[in-house]
Structures are given as structure tokens and as C-alpha cells.
From TrEMBL:
TM segment ranges: 205-227
SMART domains (UniProt xref): IG
GO cellular component, one term: membrane
Organism: Takifugu rubripes (Japanese pufferfish)
InterPro entries hit by this protein: CD2/SLAM_rcpt, Ig-like_dom, Ig-like_dom_sf, Ig-like_fold, Ig_sub
Keywords for the protein's UniProt record, in alphabetical order: Glycoprotein, Membrane, Signal, Transmembrane, Transmembrane helix
Domain of life where this protein originates: Eukaryota
Domain Ig-like, chain residue ranges per copy: 121-193
Descriptive protein name: Ig-like domain-containing protein
Signal peptide range in chain numbering: 1-20
Coiled coil location: none
Length: 254
């Protein structure tokens, strides 16, 4: 009988409520709020943990904030909401909230993922080598961040993915294609005009021609300088020999 009484008492004193784990995103350098759904009464004790390390602890009268969350953490004593500012990559991870109120314990779990704001994407075009009238280009949209989504927009149509195959009319093709990259908290868009596929194709040839001309010019100038210095040196040497005074050796008398 005693064990059953003790078990009933234990269940009445400590009641554990484990909330389903949810994923929360935050931008690096920005802020995020983790708020549990709790009853209106203020908890007697609050403890927030991050990957088994204490973040902030409230004992009913005062709170203690622990490194590395000092000076960028605010705890609401009534709702137990955790407000983090100046987010860093290392703030990502599992957050555990333990509440103690009216002799009952409540547990909540959150997964925080701190991500970068997406950068503006770049678009490149690679044309096929076909000389037929059905010339096409492969547009590739790229951004430095991992785990982002790509989507193309053109003439009321959309297509997911980082690449888009287009058909080219001529070197004056003014059709515009837009690529949007996004993550859960930010997005950026870049545009590409079809005629730029031709400029990308010809730019290596133009660059090679310019470099060849520069190298040739440098060689010509260097040759002229060397030629002038060499022959100027010969002229100075010849002139010195002509102007050298004649000297006679003394004749010894017998």
C-alpha cells in the first residue's frame, strides 16, 4: 500500500509535460524569440538550456544569465519567453525549457537554426556549339549559401532548380529571365537578358586578341629601346677613339 501512496504523491507533485520539438530559424546578427504556450500564472522557476548548457535561470526572485548569452538575452518572467539578440552561428542547436509551477514541471524543446541572409545570385550562360538556327543557351543561377531554393520566372512561367534551358533568336534578343534564391527567412533576385549569352560567348576571343596585341606592342617597344641603346653605345665608342690625342714615345739617345 505504501508504494502506491508514494507513487500517487509523486505524480501529483511532479507532472511532466513534454512539448513537441519545433524548428525555429533566425538570421545571423538579428534576433529570435522562443515562446512556450503556457498558462497565465507566472512560473515559480524557469530554466533555459542550450545543448546541455545553461542560458538563463530564474529562481522566482532573480535571474542569472550565463556566457556566451550575457548582454544579449532577455527572459520574460511571466511567459518564460526567451529573447536572443545578435545571433551567431554557434547559437544553433537544441534549446530546452524547464518550468516549475504549482508543484509541476513542464518541458519544452526547440531547435534553433541560425542562417545567413541569402546573397544576390549570379547568372551565367553557356551556349551550345550548334551552327543551326536552333541555338540555345543554358542559364545557371548560383549563390554562395548552402541549402537554398532556386526558382526561375519568365513570361508568366516558373521553373524550380538552378538551371534553365532557353532558345536564342539573335544577338539582339531582349527577353529577360529572373532567378530567385531563397531560404526560410530571406530571398534575392537577379535578372539576365538573352542577348548577353552572345557577349559571354565572344568575350574570351576578344580578351585573347587584346592580350596578344598588348604583348606584341611590349615586344616592339622593348626591341626599339634595346636597338637604340646598343647603337648609341657604338657611336660613343667610335667618337672616343677618333678624339683620342696622339702620344709619342720618347726617343732614347744612344
Amino acid at each position: 500500500m505504501a508504494p502506491r501512496v508514494f507513487q500517487t504523491f509523486f505524480l501529483n507533485v511532479i507532472f511532466c509535460l513534454v512539448a513537441a520539438q519545433s524548428i525555429k530559424y533566425g538570421l545571423k546578427g538579428q534576433e529570435v524569440k522562443l515562446k512556450p504556450q503556457i498558462q497565465e500564472q507566472q512560473p515559480d522557476q524557469i530554466l533555459w538550456m542550450h545543448d546541455d548548457n545553461k542560458v538563463v535561470e530564474f529562481n522566482g526572485k532573480e535571474e542569472d544569465v550565463y556566457d556566451p548569452f550575457k548582454h544579449r538575452t532577455t527572459l520574460d518572467w511571466h511567459s518564460a519567453e526567451l529573447h536572443l539578440t545578435d545571433l551567431r552561428s554557434e547559437d544553433s542547436g537544441l534549446y530546452e525549457l524547464e518550468l516549475y509551477t504549482q508543484k509541476k514541471s513542464y518541458f519544452y524543446y526547440y531547435t534553433l537554426q541560425v542562417i545567413d541572409k541569402v546573397a544576390k545570385p549570379t547568372i551565367t550562360c553557356e551556349t551550345n556549339s550548334s551552327k543551326s538556327s536552333n541555338l540555345s543557351g543554358l542559364l545557371t543561377c548560383s549563390a554562395p549559401q548552402p541549402d537554398i531554393e532556386y526558382e526561375w520566372f519568365f513570361y508568366g512561367n516558373t521553373q524550380p532548380g538552378p538551371q534553365l534551358r532557353i532558345f536564342l533568336d539573335n544577338k539582339h534578343d531582349e527577353r529577360v529571365y529572373s532567378c530567385r534564391v531563397s531560404n526560410p527567412l530571406s530571398n534575392e533576385t537577379a535578372e539576365f537578358t538573352a542577348k548577353d549569352c552572345y557577349s559571354d560567348e565572344s568575350s574570351p576571343v576578344v580578351l585573347a586578341a587584346v592580350l596578344s596585341a598588348v604583348v606584341l606592342l611590349v615586344l616592339v617597344v622593348a626591341g626599339v629601346v634595346i636597338y637604340r641603346r646598343y647603337y648609341k653605345g657604338l657611336d660613343n665608342q667610335t667618337e672616343g677613339e677618333i678624339q683620342r690625342p696622339l702620344t709619342s714615345s720618347p726617343i732614347k739617345s744612344g
